[in-house]
Amino acid sequence: MSNVTLKGSKEGFVVIINDGSDFEQSLEDLKALILKQNIGSIDDDVIQFTIKTGNRLLTAAQRKTVKTVFKDYPQIEIKDIISNVEDKDEVSKLLKDNKINVETGIVRSGQKLEFEGDVLFLGVLHEGAKISTTGSIYILGQVNGIVQAGYPDNTNAAIFGNLKNAAQLRIADVIEIVTEDNADKLANHQFAYIDEMHSISVDDLQDYKEIMNESRKRTG
């Protein structure tokens, strides 16, 4: 089997690097393959290639080396480098970020619970206690203390549930103190989030998807 294969598809040109081949030899074969192509002048449209590496996961240095090969030919460029496998650290981070923690206990005054990922809170959070996480928090229990989502800087996090008896809401670096004036809007079927003014707003759950999509567009 050849170390490097060129294929055309609806998505454009694809260069497949055999995942069982020697990487250095594959680079030489890649250079030879490029030279065989009928590359036009620099005034012609740029041709994009997608590099597929199968079950081989390129290191950052190897990805840089592959891109360097293409730099010698300004008429062609790499659209993407795709592998069938994922980096272990990235997968671990993804799982951690999407982890849902379930907390059912009583958190007494002076206690502080910290999590990574989203939290489903079914317990009791006393006044003077705090629950904090990097993701969003879903409140189905009773809260009288401080509820913090998106710690320390996740502005796309949100807090759901009945929060009218909470002492404070915190999302990323924004704090909302719950008082008699705003408690009524923090009842069930609402969610709190950071709006375009970087303040905490509260809206109906039925509008969650639309509002958060707009928020993610702003924050990238």
Automatic annotation (TrEMBL):
Domain Septum formation inhibitor MinC C-terminal: 105-197
Swiss-Prot/TrEMBL keywords: Cell cycle, Cell division, Septation
Domain Septum site-determining protein MinC N-terminal per the UniProt entry, residue ranges: 4-81
GO BP, sorted A to Z: cell morphogenesis; division septum assembly; regulation of cell septum assembly
Tagged with keyword Glycoprotein: no
Record InterPro entries: CAP/MinC_C, MinC, MinC_C_sf, MinC_N_1, Septum_form_inhib_MinC_C
Domain of life: Bacteria
Role summary: Cell division inhibitor that blocks the formation of polar Z ring septums. Rapidly oscillates between the poles of the cell to destabilize FtsZ filaments that have formed before they mature into polar Z rings. Prevents FtsZ polymerization.
HAMAP family registered for this protein in UniProt: MinC (MF_00267)
Subunit structure: Interacts with MinD and FtsZ.
Entry's family note: Belongs to the MinC family.
Record-given protein name: Probable septum site-determining protein MinC
Organism listed in the record: Companilactobacillus allii
